[in-house]
Amino acid sequence: MSALPGFTAVKDAKTEGAIVNLLGVVVSLQAPxxxxxxxxxxxxxIQDDFxxxxxxxxxxxxxCVFKPSKSSLPKIRGVGDIVILRKFKLNAWRERMxxxxxxxxxxxxxxxxxxxxxELSQAYLLGTQRLPYHSSPGxxxxxxxxxxxxxxxxxxxxxxxxxxxxxxxxxxxxxxSRRKEALIKDLTFDRFYDIKAQVVNIYxxxxxxxxxxxxxxxxxxxxxxYCDPDIDGDLVFKHDWRGPFGQVTLDVRLYEPHAAxxxxxxxxGDFVYLRNVHTKTSPANMxxxxxxxxxxxxxxxxxxxxxxxxxxxxxxQRKEAYEQQRTKRGNIHLANAPKKPSAKASAKKKxxxxxxxxxxxxxxxxxxxxxxxxxxxxxSGINLNVRAGFPELQRSTLSExxxxxxxxxxxxxxxxxxxxxxxxxxxxxxxxxxxxYPPELEYFAHCMNDPSWTPRxxxxxxxxxxxxxxxxxxxxxxxxxxxxxxxVNNDAAQYLGLPNARDLKAEPRVLDQLKEKLFIMWGNxxxxxxxxxxxxxxxxxxxxxxxxxNKPFDCCIEEYGHEVPVSxxxxxxxxxxxxxxxxxxxx
Length: 587
Prior knowledge:
10 helices, CATH 2.40.50, 25% helix
């Protein structure tokens, strides 16, 4: 937008404290919130250049507007709206630049659904007709040049509409995820934390990552336990480990750009502040941390040397207490230690040591396999925000699942062939969603006392239940793709990452969360289905129709049998079905 007189391109807005005018598309939006004072604030992100094809890069910027009341905040209805920001102040924050309103700022909001397509824009380009917009009090109306720039930006960003929606969904989920500053002893799995600690050791990998081992000298039962050689010498696995011992050291794997910063700036013994650490389960089933690239600010580094002296002093005090406790335990151990361990006890300790070595080796192999799978997934262009269990299973095509060879069996005596009604088994497949049922998301949750859903239940709670129509990720040209209906029951839906089921028609907020979550998995599927049904058509699309834009992903599919009345179609009294299993939307 640098070509618009008086306006600054987002990528060029780098001078802290400068007052700038900006024009951009809203690519993420948070709900208004009350500040600690008397004001209300609205946070959103804009982008003014989509030529690179990515959303959330150097041409995007976070914005914050402060107003004395909620009603006076800008009337931004959602992502895709275009805003003009006048006299906003640039503010440096954690390696990125944001813009913040002040008393002289003005905001114009152009709703996305009121901006015409290029074919109908002639009157607006000539200035004979005005685009609909909302403005903050005192903001002057847009000039003809500004109106023209809004139309051009709308047109240039239209090809990135799906990426904008997915970016907004992920940003919304990240904004609602709980992140807090915590001691290592208070960390739990699958959360986001800010951690202050001391670097014990730094390891570099061939994959470009950096592994920090950090401690704040508080113990967590879910961490790997380093045995003390002065107390449990026979159980020590890592002889080069110099401490601290016990369950006080957290492994944190850094990805770019955090890894590059750590390689050039950190050394053993440094005190660090780690922002937005994602705690997860390691291949050895232990607690570990990971710091990935920020999707909204890909150049942002969330690792810093700690300069807050009271925090350093607190860590040193805990370290001193830890050393005193270790010395005390060592003295007690020496006082109670037998003069010579028995052969049986020595053999037991050697056996335990070998078992620990075996488990450690298995964990390392699993970690290598997971990395290889992740690299292969990135090369294949699949949706990495959806992950499936059983990575050791070889992937099956839907045709292989449907035509399961294990359905064909023979009797044990005369070896007469017969066909089983179903086989209890699991598959792993690479697919994309091409349709769903029920057609309205409001009916994805069902009341347990609804006789049409479960006639025998008297419970008034709700549960998930819907069907996905899947298609192989890779379909040869000029062929009819194989498709499979997969049930998503209550357990599968909650594992997928959906909240507890409830009446979605009565709780629109939960319905919106459901839409955002599923958008990450199936792209513009729901929007496209709504548009088609409004024109008396429906999904799935015919081969060659590319209006559906979503990425394939790996999932687990379970085959099972459902007991039904005996009929010509089901002579054994069982119906063969498939359901989603152990598949999670990670964002």
